[in-house]
Amino acid sequence: MLIGDVARLSGVSARMLRHYESLGLVRPTGRTDGGYREYSDEDIRRIFHIESLRSLGLSLREVGRALDDPGFTPSGLVEDLIRRTRERIASETELLARLRRIGAAEPARWEDVLQIVALLQALGSKNAGTRQRAALSSVEKVPGAVEALVEAVLNETDPSVAGALRWALAQGGDGAPALLAEGLGSSVAEVRKRAVRSLVEIPGGEATALLRGALTSPDVVVRGYAALELGARGVAEAIPTLIDMIAEETLDVDAADVLSALANDPASADRIATGLVDRLARSTAESSARLRLTQALADIPGAATSHALAELSQDEDRAVALTAAYILGIRGAR
């Protein structure tokens, strides 16, 4: 079969067939009387093999090795192809995300596009200082900055850079709470933690509403950060979670401090005292937990607290009884 016929059959151009020949990948078995290349069935079969291997992403050099080296084993090459393909997909995915962010910003001028690209490149730098400077400068209202900052903060591992990113979002990142809310539902625990830590630094009703929802999160860390911030904002809904945190020794000192501040409201004080007593009743087998809950009553004013302490001063657990009696004595001396 002549080269033109082979090209039509295989879909490989005559020029590429000559290139394969120059590389030694496939040589026509014979020549016609007129000196034209003549390909055998085996030659054509080899051409189809070359094209199949190229479709997997092999270079022509790798194709030649695969076809001609008797000791060649494909497993190592296939693993390398898998790795290279993953890297290419990751690169293309990153490019797609970058283009989407640029499009979402609806840039009106090329200068806006260049600003966004510069910010994205800086936030993606391997240098922590560069990332931190980018976060601090983004408050100058770079178009599309909020989306870029949220993505960056959810993936940032350096504490200083993460702090700068959270600060930048808190300065007026319109739309940031809704984007961070998606991070609260991540399957990755660290991403959920970064999302809630960013939310607690954003003022306003939208962030508060999302933190209220986070009180029911199955993630104890998310619940804890949400409760501490909501308590600091005077939201009484956080009280049950704060009490649980004391019992479970999860940021228990911080939780007790927030409860103390909430107790400045008489209605909240009674609710806190009742909640602590109820939790004490459910923690009979946990001496250390009951002791922490008793200690938390120290800064809760009101008759309900005094009554609870009087009962606890007769508790079977000596540590709890002594602590309650001590607190009662201090309250009586005031």
TrEMBL record:
Presence of the UniProt keyword DNA-binding in the record: yes
InterPro entries (UniProt xref): ARM-like (IPR011989), ARM-type_fold (IPR016024), DNA-bd_dom_put_sf (IPR009061), MerR-type_HTH_dom (IPR000551), MerR_fam (IPR047057), PBS_lyase_HEAT (IPR004155)
Keywords from the named record: DNA-binding
Keyword Transport (UniProt): no
Domain HTH merR-type: 1-69
Gene3D superfamilies: 1.10.1660.10, Leucine-rich Repeat Variant
Pfam families on file: HEAT_2 (PF13646), MerR_1 (PF13411)
Record protein name field: MerR family transcriptional regulator
